[in-house]
Amino acid sequence: MADVNVDVLIIGAGPTGLGAAKRLNQIDGPSWLILDSSDKAGGLASTDVTPEGFLYDVGGHVIFSHYKYFDDCIEEALPKPEDWYDHQRISYVRYKGLWVPYPFQNNISMLPKEDQVKCIDGLIDAALEARVANTKPSNFDEWIMRMTGEGIANIFMRPYNYKVWAVPTTKMQAAWLGERVAAPDVKANVRNVILNKVAGNWGPNNTFRFPARDGTGGIWIAVANTLPKEKVRLGKQGTVNKIDGEKKIATLADGTTVKYENLISTMPVDKLSATLGNDELVQLSKGLYYSSTHVIGVGIRGERPERIGDKCWLYFPEDNCPFYRATIFSNYSPHNQPEASVKLPTLQIADGSKPSSSEAKEGPYWSIMLEVSQSTMKPVDEENLLRDCIQGLINTEMIKPEDEIVSTYHRKFDQGYPTPSLEREGVLTQLLPKLLDMGIYSRGRFGSWRYEVGNQDHSFMLGVEAADSIVNGAVELTLNYPDFVNGRKNTERRLDQGPVAAKLPTRSK
Ligand SMILES: Cc1cc2nc3c(=O)[nH]c(=O)nc-3n(C[C@H](O)[C@H](O)[C@H](O)COP(=O)(O)OP(=O)(O)OC[C@H]3O[C@@H](n4cnc5c(N)ncnc54)[C@H](O)[C@@H]3O)c2cc1C
């Protein structure tokens, strides 16, 4: 006999687990319980606060939703206009001391002449080859070459993507790409070069909104607060130490045993396999690859400088800094840093020298958040990373050597990016069905390991759809058809329309 019996047990209160819980709560059918080893909800979409009062997300988190149901749940959790700030994406790539508007491949008109020539040459070659190619690109590198040609590949795509993924582009597959990378238009590019013009805003996330308070993590704490408290267990009493897949019993860190019929697990699938103690699954999951993410935060005294302005996030393909992306986090909300009246001592001068006085002084303050990737194929000097990042900020003219740093932050997230490796689908197409045979839905950014459906909106819906699959036999579109959900507005489910109002396709029995 177990201590607790539920129809559906959910492991993890990140976006995926919360999606499952919201849906089960709405359906009000099977009994359920959601657990998380952390003492707050949010998972990788959480926010830390430094002792000085600077907020940092787990790297740049921007919501771009493909789903009405996701919007409904966020809106319900943070309903007031003053809960949010709306922003225009202002995004650049740093290259040879220039700020090239994003996306780089559409704005080669901004590059030095010799680079423009290389890029146009490559674009023409790629366009000519595309006319005769009758196979799909076999890896990400081939995809890049076909889309952009050698010039843009060497100047931007290869170095930048290696910095992001910590894996050479030749070791990644191409099927995950869908809408994510802007394909350049050769004619428009040549026109812009001749006329010295910039391409307009591209892509899915050219406007975005950000929570006024508590960072991205505030969203998920608010969503968790809409659930019945007695069904949410966090911390030690929510930590799953062991799962007996045959008996369908999870044992928690406080000794509690939970018997379930179906399990929605959002912990990384390799960790799940180990927790199940299943050697076959453990061996299989070794074929999955991931990279770690270091998040570095720097809080600076002073007015936000003119050269930074209202920039949101910035990309860094060159090797003059360890980070691939910087977010001006203080631009997202005035509450992401202490108020100007708060007195803070200077910790160090940006050039590494000691401050002349230890006296605490007033602000104003602004902040930068940086992301650095790491993997077995891209080692990082972890001990000196903060120092190297500050030097990188000086090298890229983001900060001045004489700037006063009042707060620093550095945290490593061991599993940051699920790599779309060449081997990935071969593993997932065996691993996930084997788990399903045991009544286990492994879903989420690392639960189902598909980066192309690994953002907050996707993750949330992976949870919602798993719940619908358990209760109604509905097909899980996000898991199985990423291109389909990414290419349309998904409006079938609504929070106010009842759980079975939608005509969802169901699995054949
Ligand atoms: C660097 C970075 C940048 C990102 N940028 C964006 C962005 O711009 N936009 C966007 O929409 N998304 C972004 N994301 C993705 C977003 O963070 C994920 O979509 C989301 O957090 C995944 O949710 P999840 O619930 O699947 O997994 P997680 O958030 O990882 O949650 C899993 C949960 O399971 C819990 N858990 C694990 N093991 C156990 C156990 N044994 N017992 C109990 N609980 C356990 C963990 O504590 C965790 O809370 C980014 C992610 C990263 C890392």
From TrEMBL:
Domain Amine oxidase per the UniProt entry, residue ranges: 16-298
SUPFAM superfamilies, A to Z: Nucleotide-binding domain
InterPro entries registered for this protein in UniProt: Amino_oxidase (IPR002937), FAD/NAD-bd_sf (IPR036188)
One MF term in the entry's GO annotations: oxidoreductase activity
Disordered: annotated span: 489-509
Name recorded for this polypeptide: UDP-galactopyranose mutase
